Amino acid sequence: MNGLPREEAVQILLAASRDFYSRGWMPGTSGNLSLRLEPLTFLVTASGKDKGALGPADFLVVNQRGELLEPTSQRPSAETPIHRRLYSSFAVGAVYHVHALSSVIISRRYRSEGKVVIRELEILKGLEGVAADEVIEIPVLANDPHIPALAEAIVAAARPNVPGVLIDGHGLYAWGASAFTAKRHLEVLEYLCQYLVLAGG
Question: Which of 114, 141, 151, 196 has the fewest CB atoms lying closer than 10 Å?
Fold first, then answer.
């Protein structure tokens, strides 16, 4: 958990959203980001917002029941239940979800297998506790419009050495103990998806 002041957390998420949008990972109004503030509260992106043009008011404080803790006319992301479930299940400080094209392509390509197996790539060292000579399996889950059910599926599929999952046709979720770690994990997992697309895997 971060124990970050709200203002600092907002600036971290603003920078992340602009970065991911500039890479084409959050087109339209897709994707959502969150950052833990205290053990039972976190900051999450508002619903239906252009991720390249977010302002401080577009990040909302919610508790573990998904209740807004500040007055606002905005609604938290529809996928807030996924963030809540990850925070309540693991020692997670930040959760990032993007619709990067490579991750969507790979999620479709491997949906019948239910996983993507990656072997012996140097970039694997960017995942917490993973060595370059290891073999990892990234879970690929069926998409579910019922978000609480999808949240349960993500938590059930999560592997200790793979801080993320692919959702069929829906992109990539990644998380970490801090915003920095979650960003690194997201970048590594998306790199792996790009590698597979280019390698024809």
Answer: 114
